[in-house]
Each structure stands twice: as structure tokens, then as C-alpha cells.
Automatic annotation (TrEMBL):
The chain crosses the membrane at residues 41-62, 68-88, 108-128, 140-158, 196-217, 223-247, 259-277, 297-316, 350-369, 375-392, 460-482, 519-538, 550-578, 590-611. Residues 10-19 have a biased composition (Basic and acidic residues). Its main location: membrane. This is OPT family oligopeptide transporter.
Length: 614
């Protein structure tokens, strides 16, 4: 998980490529793994990758604003691209789609899909809400693309150290490699996974259309026609969402987090909210649900749980931080016996020239669009690079990129450095978020390419096409489908709430909070500290039973029905993995990803249609 509050990646299943566990020297890699004669960077692979990635980025906008989660798109893109080329070859003659073309396609697609997590579901809308300034389509595109380009370039020196030399796991990169090989007959289950994805995508799209577009299916089903403290359970959001996307998301997130989300939802919406209603802290309106009224209070303990839990977890990763610092000295040096082919690896001149150009573009964009002082932007870029280094190592070891706590740390730091300047602190945090997000995405793709024998040079070019295309499409979809007035009401937008809440707190302090909020925040902070320390440093056998600050924190920001539905998805996936492990390896991830992609993409289409009628 990475993007704020969470970014879901998929653990690998099935057979692993040969060098997952064993170190392969560069000389052996060139001789045994690298595929110099195979088609890789082709027009059709890049175009289809950008198209698929842009669609998946729109889906990530929807899931980010709806349930606070964005998804790594490599596996879904690999499956989707393979299906698309099967249909394409039925119409247009031409050579078969190669393994490395599929890798190029999913590299471009994952870069485009990651643009939703590069500030679009967090800092950018939070800035517009807090300042009241509506950025234009061109301004949003320029900001998100220049920020993401920095992250892609940060990955170039990190790749040689963390992938070539240290062979860090990057589990989602391994999973994408396995899936790609299976699709092309070099592994098991590719065709079954693709069919599961296709059918699940169709079912998700049909449900979204009949529910959101035609109004035939209700959004939620209340638990019972009963009341709690004089307020009906339906108004307290106690029920289940009618959503395959949320069920699929629960399956991908996992049982521990979703179980604690259910616990947190019960605590919040049957305890904290009725308590706040009884004391007048929350004043309900005649609306069908009191979510929009109550979340103005519950968001504060939720944000504290997310931020404090993330920061403590980040601080406890001392080994990763120390290893990141030690690796800095080795990145520029050539190890004894190391073979570096600049016709395959990204040349140093590309990195230096590209980074200089990206820094200039970022400084110019921040100044022209936001009026930020060049020195402030440069300091944010330096910090973004340092935190991308640490975050990427953590992702390589655990598949988790701690973007959320790093962005919050940047926001608080720049609030101090700029004397509480809201815009500067928000967008410095957004720059860190976007840079670390894109760097982590690039490293997962490079791990996949390393296992498949792809050229890092050509993967970099595919990433650049994906970033530019995905940045524009994501900004366009955001402008057309998600009016700011609906963020925090129709769409819970947890990431936006988190950045917005931090900005308001830094500006107003405790005086601007609802009554009793400081007490609730202090309790939430204490719980987050204790649970994180016990969960990460305590006995491993107890870890699954330790409350998850991420799960509980999200539950205080989302409607209870969403948390409960996520738990159902996580529980069903856990049962299937226990009872039917082989079928789980084949179908669960593909089916869950299809539910998410189908319903969210159709949800975006319905949202655009609804927004144009407003």
C-alpha cells in the first residue's frame, strides 16, 4: 500500500521467475535473461498502454474519492492489454504480441494509472477547497506531470543499487512478471486470469450503470429498520454498500485491515456519532443520511490515526532508512566486475539532463501556477528526492510505499519553514507525494522488466509517455466528473480530508476545531502510537490481532456501510484462500481487480453525465 491513505498492490502468486531469490550479475543477466531480439518498444504497445492506463487512472480517481484507495495497475494492465491484443489481431493482421511488448504496454499503463495517486486525490483538490481557487485544466496538468516526472527520474540511480545489486523483492513487480509470462505460455493460469478479469469487469460495469445511472439498484441496504439514540440506522450509514468495487477492494486490501475497519465503523457510527449528536457537537440536517454533518467531527480522530500511525511506522523502519543513507555513496560508483551497457541501461547523461530539465519545469510551474518562491520549491524537490529514496527501499522490502506519512511530514515541516503559509505547505507535501508515488511505480516496473529481460531505456520512454498522457486525462476527468462541492459529501474523499484537515489545523490550531475534538484526537493519537509499536515490534503471532490504525482511521472518515462492505470482501477472499488455495491463486486477484475496474470506470462515466446535468 502506498498512496494516501492507501495504495493497493497485489502479492505474487504462482511460479516465480528464476532470479527472484538468487542474485544475478549484470554479465549473467545480459547473457541469459536479456532479450535483445524481441520486439519491445512498439507504437501499438505504447498507444494501447497509454489508453488502458488513462482508463485505469480514471478508475483510480473514482476509488480514491470513494473509498480512499488507489491501485497499482501493472497486473490489471497486463491482463487487459493481452485481451485487447487478442481482439485486435482478430481484426488487424500482424505479428503476435510479444512478452516485452506486453511489458512496455503495462509500463506505460501503470505510469498513466499512477497519476491519480500523484496528488490528484489528495493535495490538488485540498488546495482548491482550502484556498477557494479553481485551477484550470492546463494548470492541473502542468503541476501533476512535472511533479511525477521528478519521481520517474529519481528511480534511475535507485534501480542500479536496489534492483541490480541488492535484488530487493518489489513484490508487485514480481507478480506482474509472473502474470505476463503466464499470459504468453511461459507460466500457468494466464488465460483463466484474463477471462476472470473480463467477466468481472463486465459485471462491475453493469452494476454501476443500473445503480448510479438508471437508479434501479439502491446504493446501500440498511441493516434493519431500527434506530439508535433516536436516529435510524439508515441515517447513521449502518448497512452494506451495493458495490462489487468495494467487495473487490476488500479482497485486495486483505482481512486484517478490513476487519479493523469494520470494528472502527461500529465504534464510530454506533458510539462516537450518537454521543456527539446527544451533546450537540454534530447537528443533523433533514438529509437522508447524517454522514456529511458527522464527518466534519469524525474526520479529526480519523486523520490523527492515519497520520500518527503512519509516522510512527515510518520512524520504526530505522533499518530501511539507514540502508538508504548507506546506499547513497554506492549509487554513483561502479562496483568491481560490474558490466554497464549504456545501450540498454539509462545513460548517466539522460539522468543528469532529464533531472535538470524536470527541476526547472517544476520550479517554473510552481511559480507560475501557485506563486511559490523558487527556493521553497527547490527545497521541496530535495526533500522529495530524499523521501523517495527511503520510501522506495521500503516498497522494495515490503511492497508498501509510506507516501502518506512522508507527505504529512513535509506539510508540517514547510508550514514551519514558511510561517504557516497554507498553499506552500500543501503543495510541498503534494510534490513529495507525487514524486515518491511515481518513483515507486517506476521501480516496480523496472523490477518486472529485470525479470523479463527488458531494456530499462525503453521502459523509461514508456513511463514518460504514460506520465504525460495519464496526467492530462486524469486532470480532464477530475475537472469533468468530480465537482469540488461533492468531495466530502457524495464522495468521502479521505485523502482530500486528510490534507485539508492538516492545512486547517496548521492555520487555525485547536481553536478552530469542534468542541471535544482535542480530547478525541489525543485518544486517537495514543491508540495509534501503541498499536503501531506493538504491531511492528511485538511478537509476530500477535500482529494479526493488533488493531490497525489505518483501518480504524479510514473507518472514521468513510460511511459505515463502505467499511462493512470492505470487510465482507476481505473475509470472502480469506476464506477462499484457506479453502481453495489453487483457485484463489488463479481467480481472486483477477476477479477483484475486474470488479474494481469495471464499476469504477462506469462510475466515472455516470459521474461525468451527472456533472454535466448540474
Amino acid at each position: 500500500m502506498s498512496s494516501l491513505p492507501a495504495d493497493v498492490t497485489n502479492e505474487p502468486h504462482g511460479e516465480e521467475p528464476a532470479d527472484v531469490h538468487g542474485q544475478v550479475t549484470d554479465e549473467a543477466w545480459y547473457a541469459q535473461v536479456y532479450r535483445p531480439m524481441e520486439r519491445q518498444f512498439t507504437l501499438r504497445a505504447v498507444v494501447f498502454g497509454c489508453v488502458i492506463g488513462s482508463v485505469l487512472s480514471a478508475a483510480n480517481l473514482y476509488t480514491g474519492f470513494t473509498i480512499g484507495i488507489t491501485y497499482g495497475a501493472s497486473i490489471t494492465a497486463a491482463l487487459s492489454g493481452w485481451l485487447l491484443f487478442r481482439f485486435w489481431r482478430g481484426v488487424v493482421s500482424g505479428p503476435a504480441f510479444s512478452v516485452l511488448e506486453n511489458n512496455t504496454m503495462q509500463t506505460a499503463a501503470s505510469a498513466a494509472a499512477a497519476m491519480a495517486g500523484a496528488g490528484m486525490v489528495t493535495a490538488v483538490p485540498a488546495l482548491m477547497i482550502v484556498t477557494g481557487r479553481r485551477l484550470s485544466l492546463l494548470e492541473i496538468t502542468a503541476w501533476v506531470v512535472t511533479a511525477a516526472l521528478l519521481g520517474v527520474l529519481f528511480a534511475i540511480p535507485l534501480k542500479r543499487q536496489m534492483i541490480n545489486r541488492e535484488n530487493l523483492k518489489f513484490p508487485s513487480g514480481i507478480a506482474a512478471a509472473q502474470t505476463t509470462l503466464a499470459l504468453h505460455g511461459e507460466g500457468e493460469g494466464g488465460a483463466q486470469k484474463a477471462r476472470a478479469l473480463l467477466w468481472a469487469t463486465g459485471l462491475g460495469a453493469v452494476l454501476a450503470l443500473t445503480r448510479g445511472g438508471l437508479g434501479i439498484v439502491p446504493d446501500t441496504v440498511p441493516f434493519a429498520f431500527a434506530s439508535l439514540g433516536g436516529v435510524s440506522l439508515a441515517r447513521l450509514t449502518l448497512g452494506l454498500d451495493v458495490s462489487l468495487m468495494t467487495l473487490g477492494s476488500g479482497a485486495l486490501v486483505g482481512l486484517r485491515t478490513t476487519a479493523w475497519m469494520a470494528v472502527g465503523a461500529a465504534l464510530c457510527w454506533t458510539g462516537v456519532v450518537p454521543w456527539a449528536l446527544g451533546r450537540g457537537i454534530v447537528t443533523p440536517t433533514p438529509a437522508p443520511m447524517i454522514y456529511s454533518n458527522a464527518v466534519g467531527f469524525t474526520v479529526w480522530p480519523g486523520v490523527v490515526m492515519l497520520v500518527v500511525g503512519g509516522l510512527v511506522s515510518f520512524a520504526l523502519k530505522g533499518g530501511s532508512i539507514a540502508a538508504s543513507v548507506r546506499s547513497l555513496g554506492a549509487m554513483g560508483a561502479k562496483a568491481p566486475g560490474e558490466v554497464v551497457r549504456e545501450d540498454v541501461e539509462v545513460p548517466r547523461r539522460w539522468f543528469v539532463g532529464g533531472l535538470v530539465a524536470a527541476v526547472i519545469l517544476a520550479i517554473g510551474t510552481q511559480w507560475l501556477v501557485l506563486g511559490m518562491h523558487p527556493g521553497t520549491t527547490l527545497a521541496a524537490i530535495v526533500l522529495a528526492g530524499a523521501l523517495a529514496l527511503v520510501g522506495t527501499r521500503t516498497m522494495g522490502e515490503t511492497d508498501v510505499n509510506p507516501i502518506g506519512p512522508m507527505a504529512m511530514m513535509t506539510q508540517f515541516l514547510f508550514a514551519v519553514l514558511t510561517g504557516g503559509h497554507t498553499q506552500a505547505s500543501l503543495m510541498a507535501a503534494g510534490l513529495t507525494n507525487a514524486g515518491a508515488n511515481s518513483c515507486g511505480d517506476m521501480m516496480q516496473d523496472l523490477k518486472t522488466g529485470r525479470l523479463l529481460g527488458a531494456s530499462p531505456q525503453k521502459q523509461l520512454l514508456a513511463q514518460l509517455f504514460g506520465v504525460v498522457t495519464g496526467g492530462f486525462v486524469t486532470a480532464l476527468i477530475f475537472a469533468k466528473a468530480f465537482p469540488l462541492e461533492l468531495l466530502g459529501t457524495k464522495y468521502p474523499a479521505p485523502g482530500v480530508q486528510m490534507f485539508k484537515g492538516a492545512a486547517e489545523f496548521l492555520k487555525q490550531g485547536f481553536a478552530g476545531l469542534p468542541p471535544q475534538t482535542p480530547m478525541i484526537m489525543a485518544i486517537a493519537a495514543g491508540v495509534a502510537v501503541v498499536c503501531t509499536i506493538v504491531g511492528e515490534l511485538g511478537p509476530k503471532r500477535l500482529a494479526p490481532w493488533v488493531p490497525s490504525p489505518l483501518g480504524i482511521g479510514l473507518a472514521f472518515i468513510l460511511p459505515a456501510s463502505t467499511s462493512f462492505t470492505l470487510f465482507v470482501g476481505g473475509a470472502v477472499a480469506a476464506i477462499l484462500a484457506w479453502k481453495f488455495p489453487k483457485k484463489d491463486a488463479l481467480y481472486t486477484t483477477a476477479t477483484a481487480s475486474g470488479f474494481v475496474a469495471g464499476e469504477s470506470v462506469m462510475g466515472v462515466a455516470v459521474a461525468i453525465w451527472a456533472a454535466q446535468r448540474m
